[in-house]
Protein backbone atom coordinates (compact mmCIF):
# COMPACT_ATOMS: atom_id res chain seq x y z
CA UNK A 1 0.00 0.00 0.00
CA UNK A 2 2.95 2.32 0.53
CA UNK A 3 4.65 3.76 -2.45
CA UNK A 4 7.55 6.03 -3.09
CA UNK A 5 6.38 9.51 -3.69
CA UNK A 6 8.19 12.71 -4.33
CA UNK A 7 7.15 15.38 -1.86
CA UNK A 8 4.88 18.04 -3.42
CA UNK A 9 7.36 20.82 -2.76
CA UNK A 10 11.08 20.62 -2.38
CA UNK A 11 12.17 19.94 1.20
CA UNK A 12 12.54 23.12 3.19
CA UNK A 13 15.23 21.71 5.45
CA UNK A 14 18.86 21.61 4.51
CA UNK A 15 18.35 18.02 3.42
CA UNK A 16 17.84 17.45 -0.27
CA UNK A 17 17.38 13.73 0.24
CA UNK A 18 14.15 12.41 -1.33
CA UNK A 19 11.63 11.51 1.35
CA UNK A 20 10.24 8.02 1.72
CA UNK A 21 6.46 7.76 1.62
CA UNK A 22 4.77 5.97 4.49
CA UNK A 23 1.59 5.60 6.50
CA UNK A 24 1.46 6.06 10.26
CA UNK A 25 0.40 2.72 11.73
CA UNK A 26 0.88 3.35 15.45
CA UNK A 27 1.20 6.41 17.64
CA UNK A 28 2.85 6.53 21.07
CA UNK A 29 3.04 10.12 22.22
CA UNK A 30 5.93 11.52 20.20
CA UNK A 31 7.01 8.22 18.68
CA UNK A 32 5.36 6.70 15.67
CA UNK A 33 5.55 3.56 13.62
CA UNK A 34 5.40 4.25 9.90
CA UNK A 35 4.84 1.55 7.28
CA UNK A 36 6.87 2.03 4.10
CA UNK A 37 7.55 -0.17 1.07
CA UNK A 38 10.64 -1.42 2.80
CA UNK A 39 9.07 -2.24 6.15
CA UNK A 40 8.06 -0.48 9.33
CA UNK A 41 10.24 2.30 10.64
CA UNK A 42 10.16 3.65 14.18
CA UNK A 43 10.06 7.38 13.76
CA UNK A 44 10.44 10.47 15.81
CA UNK A 45 9.41 13.95 14.82
CA UNK A 46 10.99 17.34 14.40
CA UNK A 47 10.87 19.59 17.45
CA UNK A 48 7.76 19.31 19.58
CA UNK A 49 5.51 18.28 16.75
CA UNK A 50 3.38 15.29 17.65
CA UNK A 51 0.04 15.82 15.93
CA UNK A 52 0.16 12.78 13.70
CA UNK A 53 -2.59 10.19 13.63
CA UNK A 54 -2.88 6.61 12.47
CA UNK A 55 -3.70 6.76 8.77
CA UNK A 56 -1.63 9.88 8.11
CA UNK A 57 0.45 9.84 4.95
CA UNK A 58 3.91 11.16 5.73
CA UNK A 59 7.28 11.70 4.17
CA UNK A 60 10.16 10.40 6.25
CA UNK A 61 13.91 10.57 6.19
CA UNK A 62 15.22 7.08 6.97
CA UNK A 63 17.99 7.16 9.58
CA UNK A 64 19.17 3.55 9.37
CA UNK A 65 18.58 0.66 11.77
CA UNK A 66 14.82 0.72 11.21
CA UNK A 67 14.62 4.33 12.42
CA UNK A 68 13.45 7.50 10.73
CA UNK A 69 12.29 11.07 11.14
CA UNK A 70 8.89 12.33 10.02
CA UNK A 71 9.68 15.38 7.90
CA UNK A 72 6.31 16.18 6.40
CA UNK A 73 2.67 15.18 6.38
CA UNK A 74 0.60 15.10 3.20
CA UNK A 75 -2.91 16.64 3.29
CA UNK A 76 -5.56 14.64 5.13
CA UNK A 77 -8.82 13.69 3.47
CA UNK A 78 -10.41 13.72 6.90
CA UNK A 79 -9.51 13.48 10.57
CA UNK A 80 -11.38 12.01 13.47
CA UNK A 81 -10.47 13.59 16.77
CA UNK A 82 -11.88 14.48 20.12
CA UNK A 83 -11.33 17.53 22.25
CA UNK A 84 -12.36 19.19 25.48
CA UNK A 85 -11.61 22.70 26.71
CA UNK A 86 -7.87 22.13 26.97
CA UNK A 87 -6.79 18.94 25.28
CA UNK A 88 -7.23 17.10 22.06
CA UNK A 89 -6.69 13.54 20.97
CA UNK A 90 -6.26 12.52 17.37
CA UNK A 91 -7.89 9.17 16.62
CA UNK A 92 -7.31 8.46 12.94
CA UNK A 93 -7.26 10.08 9.52
CA UNK A 94 -7.97 9.31 5.86
CA UNK A 95 -10.90 7.06 6.75
CA UNK A 96 -13.54 5.73 4.37
CA UNK A 97 -15.75 4.34 7.12
CA UNK A 98 -16.24 4.31 10.89
CA UNK A 99 -17.63 1.32 12.72
CA UNK A 100 -19.07 2.15 16.12
CA UNK A 101 -18.81 -1.02 18.17
CA UNK A 102 -21.50 -1.67 20.79
CA UNK A 103 -22.36 -4.91 22.59
CA UNK A 104 -25.10 -6.67 24.46
CA UNK A 105 -22.88 -6.67 27.56
CA UNK A 106 -21.55 -4.57 29.23
CA UNK A 107 -24.22 -1.97 28.55
CA UNK A 108 -23.31 0.81 26.14
CA UNK A 109 -24.10 4.51 26.16
CA UNK A 110 -26.41 5.67 23.38
CA UNK A 111 -25.14 9.20 24.02
CA UNK A 112 -21.64 8.01 23.12
CA UNK A 113 -23.04 6.51 19.91
CA UNK A 114 -24.54 9.92 19.07
CA UNK A 115 -21.18 11.58 19.77
CA UNK A 116 -19.33 9.18 17.48
CA UNK A 117 -21.95 9.64 14.76
CA UNK A 118 -21.69 13.42 15.05
CA UNK A 119 -17.89 13.24 14.77
CA UNK A 120 -18.21 11.03 11.68
CA UNK A 121 -20.91 13.15 10.02
CA UNK A 122 -18.98 16.37 10.64
CA UNK A 123 -16.18 14.88 8.51
CA UNK A 124 -18.58 13.26 6.00
CA UNK A 125 -17.38 9.76 6.87
CA UNK A 126 -20.01 7.00 6.49
CA UNK A 127 -20.73 5.24 9.79
CA UNK A 128 -22.24 1.95 10.75
CA UNK A 129 -23.00 0.40 14.10
CA UNK A 130 -21.91 -3.10 15.05
CA UNK A 131 -23.88 -4.84 17.77
CA UNK A 132 -21.38 -7.39 19.04
CA UNK A 133 -21.81 -10.33 21.44
CA UNK A 134 -25.11 -11.31 19.86
CA UNK A 135 -24.46 -14.75 21.38
CA UNK A 136 -25.40 -13.27 24.78
CA UNK A 137 -29.06 -13.58 23.90
CA UNK A 138 -30.70 -12.47 27.14
CA UNK A 139 -29.51 -8.88 26.64
CA UNK A 140 -29.98 -8.89 22.89
CA UNK A 141 -33.56 -7.56 22.68
CA UNK A 142 -32.72 -4.65 24.95
CA UNK A 143 -29.61 -3.71 22.96
CA UNK A 144 -31.54 -3.97 19.70
CA UNK A 145 -34.24 -1.71 21.04
CA UNK A 146 -31.70 0.91 22.11
CA UNK A 147 -30.08 0.85 18.68
CA UNK A 148 -33.41 1.10 16.86
CA UNK A 149 -33.11 4.85 17.43
CA UNK A 150 -30.11 4.92 15.07
CA UNK A 151 -31.36 2.28 12.65
CA UNK A 152 -34.42 4.49 12.10
CA UNK A 153 -32.09 7.26 10.90
CA UNK A 154 -30.67 4.98 8.23
CA UNK A 155 -27.46 3.86 9.93
CA UNK A 156 -26.85 0.17 9.27
CA UNK A 157 -26.84 -1.90 12.47
CA UNK A 158 -24.98 -5.19 12.01
CA UNK A 159 -25.39 -7.91 14.62
CA UNK A 160 -22.58 -10.36 15.11
CA UNK A 161 -20.54 -12.34 17.56
CA UNK A 162 -16.85 -11.60 17.07
CA UNK A 163 -15.91 -14.69 19.07
CA UNK A 164 -17.72 -16.92 16.56
CA UNK A 165 -17.17 -15.05 13.32
CA UNK A 166 -17.18 -11.55 11.98
CA UNK A 167 -18.25 -12.31 8.40
CA UNK A 168 -21.30 -10.05 8.67
CA UNK A 169 -18.95 -7.06 8.49
CA UNK A 170 -17.07 -8.30 5.45
CA UNK A 171 -19.11 -6.37 2.84
CA UNK A 172 -18.42 -3.14 4.73
CA UNK A 173 -14.68 -3.65 4.94
CA UNK A 174 -13.55 -4.65 1.48
CA UNK A 175 -10.71 -2.31 0.51
CA UNK A 176 -12.06 0.25 2.96
CA UNK A 177 -10.09 2.30 5.48
CA UNK A 178 -11.99 1.65 8.66
CA UNK A 179 -11.73 2.83 12.26
CA UNK A 180 -13.32 0.77 15.03
CA UNK A 181 -14.40 3.04 17.85
CA UNK A 182 -16.39 2.47 21.03
CA UNK A 183 -16.29 1.97 24.76
CA UNK A 184 -13.83 -0.53 26.17
CA UNK A 185 -15.05 -4.08 26.55
CA UNK A 186 -17.28 -3.99 23.46
CA UNK A 187 -15.00 -6.33 21.50
CA UNK A 188 -13.04 -4.08 19.14
CA UNK A 189 -9.77 -5.94 19.59
CA UNK A 190 -11.54 -9.29 19.33
CA UNK A 191 -13.05 -8.11 16.06
CA UNK A 192 -9.65 -7.09 14.71
CA UNK A 193 -8.28 -10.52 15.60
CA UNK A 194 -11.17 -12.18 13.78
CA UNK A 195 -10.79 -9.98 10.72
CA UNK A 196 -7.01 -9.74 10.44
CA UNK A 197 -5.60 -13.23 11.08
CA UNK A 198 -2.03 -12.02 11.45
CA UNK A 199 -3.07 -9.40 14.03
CA UNK A 200 -2.66 -11.68 17.04
CA UNK A 201 -0.86 -8.81 18.78
CA UNK A 202 -4.05 -6.75 19.15
CA UNK A 203 -4.06 -6.90 22.93
CA UNK A 204 -5.57 -4.23 25.12
CA UNK A 205 -2.42 -2.90 26.67
CA UNK A 206 1.03 -2.80 25.25
CA UNK A 207 4.03 -1.80 27.31
CA UNK A 208 6.45 0.34 25.48
CA UNK A 209 9.59 2.10 26.53
CA UNK A 210 9.52 5.83 25.99
CA UNK A 211 12.53 8.02 26.66
CA UNK A 212 11.28 8.94 30.12
CA UNK A 213 11.01 5.30 31.16
CA UNK A 214 8.59 2.45 30.85
CA UNK A 215 4.92 3.23 30.37
CA UNK A 216 1.87 1.14 29.86
CA UNK A 217 -0.41 2.71 27.36
CA UNK A 218 -3.41 1.85 25.30
CA UNK A 219 -2.72 2.02 21.69
CA UNK A 220 -4.29 2.97 18.41
CA UNK A 221 -2.96 0.66 15.72
CA UNK A 222 -3.55 0.27 12.02
CA UNK A 223 -3.70 -3.21 10.46
CA UNK A 224 -3.42 -3.52 6.67
CA UNK A 225 -6.14 -5.71 5.16
CA UNK A 226 -6.41 -6.25 1.41
CA UNK A 227 -6.16 -2.85 -0.27
CA UNK A 228 -7.48 -1.15 2.83
CA UNK A 229 -6.96 -1.26 6.54
CA UNK A 230 -8.57 -1.50 9.95
CA UNK A 231 -7.69 0.62 12.97
CA UNK A 232 -8.17 -0.59 16.53
CA UNK A 233 -8.53 2.19 19.09
CA UNK A 234 -8.55 2.25 22.88
CA UNK A 235 -11.94 2.48 24.55
CA UNK A 236 -13.44 5.94 24.70
CA UNK A 237 -15.65 6.97 27.62
CA UNK A 238 -15.75 10.68 26.94
CA UNK A 239 -15.88 11.82 23.35
CA UNK A 240 -15.62 15.58 23.56
CA UNK A 241 -16.51 17.58 20.47
CA UNK A 242 -15.34 21.03 21.58
CA UNK A 243 -13.86 21.61 18.11
CA UNK A 244 -17.28 21.52 16.45
CA UNK A 245 -19.12 24.80 16.34
CA UNK A 246 -22.81 24.55 17.25
CA UNK A 247 -23.90 24.98 13.61
CA UNK A 248 -21.73 22.08 12.49
CA UNK A 249 -23.04 19.99 15.37
CA UNK A 250 -26.67 20.67 14.41
CA UNK A 251 -26.06 19.51 10.86
CA UNK A 252 -24.15 16.45 12.11
CA UNK A 253 -27.47 15.21 13.55
CA UNK A 254 -28.54 14.24 10.05
CA UNK A 255 -32.27 13.99 10.73
CA UNK A 256 -32.32 17.62 11.96
CA UNK A 257 -31.25 18.95 8.57
CA UNK A 258 -34.72 19.45 7.02
CA UNK A 259 -35.75 21.52 10.07
CA UNK A 260 -32.69 23.77 10.39
CA UNK A 261 -33.52 27.38 9.57
CA UNK A 262 -37.24 26.70 10.07
CA UNK A 263 -37.49 27.93 13.70
CA UNK A 264 -39.30 31.22 14.33
CA UNK A 265 -36.16 32.84 15.76
CA UNK A 266 -33.06 32.73 13.67
CA UNK A 267 -30.90 32.16 16.76
CA UNK A 268 -33.27 29.57 18.28
CA UNK A 269 -31.52 27.41 20.87
CA UNK A 270 -34.15 24.66 20.52
CA UNK A 271 -34.62 24.77 24.31
CA UNK A 272 -37.94 26.44 25.08
CA UNK A 273 -38.36 29.14 22.46
CA UNK A 274 -41.78 29.47 20.84
CA UNK A 275 -41.96 28.32 17.24
CA UNK A 276 -39.04 25.88 17.46
CA UNK A 277 -39.19 23.60 14.42
CA UNK A 278 -37.14 20.86 16.08
CA UNK A 279 -39.40 20.78 19.15
CA UNK A 280 -42.47 20.78 16.93
CA UNK A 281 -41.07 17.79 15.03
CA UNK A 282 -40.50 16.00 18.35
CA UNK A 283 -44.13 16.72 19.30
CA UNK A 284 -45.42 15.18 16.08
CA UNK A 285 -43.14 12.16 16.43
CA UNK A 286 -40.97 13.05 13.44
CA UNK A 287 -37.85 13.50 15.54
CA UNK A 288 -36.72 11.50 18.55
CA UNK A 289 -36.69 13.38 21.86
CA UNK A 290 -33.67 11.30 22.86
CA UNK A 291 -31.63 12.60 19.92
CA UNK A 292 -32.68 16.18 20.68
CA UNK A 293 -31.53 15.62 24.28
CA UNK A 294 -28.20 14.28 23.02
CA UNK A 295 -27.78 17.30 20.79
CA UNK A 296 -28.58 19.79 23.57
CA UNK A 297 -26.22 18.09 25.99
CA UNK A 298 -23.30 18.04 23.55
CA UNK A 299 -24.06 21.61 22.45
CA UNK A 300 -24.00 22.88 26.04
CA UNK A 301 -20.76 21.02 26.66
CA UNK A 302 -19.18 22.66 23.61
CA UNK A 303 -20.30 26.10 24.78
CA UNK A 304 -18.84 25.63 28.26
CA UNK A 305 -15.60 24.19 26.88
CA UNK A 306 -15.21 27.26 24.70
CA UNK A 307 -16.01 29.60 27.61
CA UNK A 308 -13.43 27.83 29.76
CA UNK A 309 -10.72 28.43 27.19
CA UNK A 310 -11.62 31.41 25.02
CA UNK A 311 -9.45 32.08 22.01
CA UNK A 312 -8.50 28.44 21.61
CA UNK A 313 -7.94 27.65 18.00
CA UNK A 314 -9.14 24.38 16.60
CA UNK A 315 -7.44 23.73 13.33
CA UNK A 316 -5.83 20.42 12.63
CA UNK A 317 -6.76 19.98 8.99
N1 LIG B 1 -19.60 -13.59 24.53
C1 LIG B 1 -18.84 -12.82 23.75
N2 LIG B 1 -17.77 -12.19 24.27
C2 LIG B 1 -17.02 -11.42 23.45
C3 LIG B 1 -17.33 -11.26 22.08
N3 LIG B 1 -16.41 -10.42 21.54
C4 LIG B 1 -15.57 -10.07 22.53
N4 LIG B 1 -15.91 -10.69 23.69
C5 LIG B 1 -15.23 -10.56 24.98
O1 LIG B 1 -15.37 -9.24 25.47
C6 LIG B 1 -14.20 -8.85 26.21
C7 LIG B 1 -13.69 -7.52 25.70
O2 LIG B 1 -13.21 -7.69 24.36
P1 LIG B 1 -12.11 -6.72 23.72
O3 LIG B 1 -11.95 -7.18 22.31
O4 LIG B 1 -10.89 -6.61 24.55
O5 LIG B 1 -12.90 -5.34 23.76
P2 LIG B 1 -12.36 -3.87 23.42
O6 LIG B 1 -12.04 -3.23 24.73
O7 LIG B 1 -13.50 -3.21 22.74
O8 LIG B 1 -11.16 -4.02 22.54
C8 LIG B 1 -13.20 -10.00 26.04
O9 LIG B 1 -13.26 -10.77 27.21
C9 LIG B 1 -13.72 -10.75 24.85
O10 LIG B 1 -13.40 -12.13 24.88
C10 LIG B 1 -18.48 -11.94 21.56
O11 LIG B 1 -18.83 -11.87 20.38
N5 LIG B 1 -19.20 -12.70 22.45
MG1 LIG C 1 -9.27 -3.21 22.73
ZN1 LIG D 1 -35.45 25.71 17.38
What features would you describe in this structure?
- By secondary structure, the chain is an alpha/beta fold.
- About 20% of the residues lie in helices and about 30% in strands.
- The chain is globular.
- The model is unreliable at about 10-15 and about 200-215 (pLDDT under 50).
- It binds guanosine-5'-diphosphate, magnesium ion and zinc ion.
- Magnesium ion binds next to helix 4.
List key phrases describing it.
about 325 residues; alpha/beta; two-stranded antiparallel ribbon; 7 helices; 15 strands; binds guanosine-5'-diphosphate; binds magnesium ion; binds zinc ion
Short précis:
This protein has 317 residues and is an alpha/beta fold. It has helices at 110-122, 140-151, 170-173, 188-195, 246-252, 277-283, 289-308; strands spanning 20-28, 31-36, 39-45, 57-64, 67-73, 79-83, 88-93, 97-103, 127-132, 157-159, 177-181, 205-210, 213-218, 220-225, 228-232.
Helix content: 10-25%
Straight-line N-to-C gap: 23 Å
Bound molecules: guanosine-5'-diphosphate, magnesium ion, zinc ion
- Oligomerization state of this entry? single chain
Biggest β-sheet description: 5 strands, mixed, barrel
Strand order of the largest sheet: 1-2-3-5-4
Shape: globular
Low-confidence stretches: 9-14, 201-216
Mean pLDDT: 88
Helices and strands, with pairings:
Layout: E1 20-28, E2 31-36, E3 39-45, E4 57-64, E5 67-73, E6 79-83, E7 88-93, E8 97-103, H1 110-122, E9 127-132, H2 140-151, E10 157-159, H3 170-173, E11 177-181, H4 188-195, E12 205-210, E13 213-218, E14 220-225, E15 228-232, H5 246-252, H6 277-283, H7 289-308
This protein binds guanosine-5'-diphosphate (GDP), magnesium ion and zinc ion (ZN).
Amino acid sequence: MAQNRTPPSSPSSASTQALTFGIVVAAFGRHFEVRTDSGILRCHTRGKKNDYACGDEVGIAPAGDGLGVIETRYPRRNLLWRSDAFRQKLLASNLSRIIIVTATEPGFSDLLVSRCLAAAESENIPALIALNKADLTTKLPDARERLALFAALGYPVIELSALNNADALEPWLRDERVLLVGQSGMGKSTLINALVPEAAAAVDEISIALNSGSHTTTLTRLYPRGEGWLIDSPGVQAFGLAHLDPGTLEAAFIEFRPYLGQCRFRDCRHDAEPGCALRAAVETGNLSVRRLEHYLLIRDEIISARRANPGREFDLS
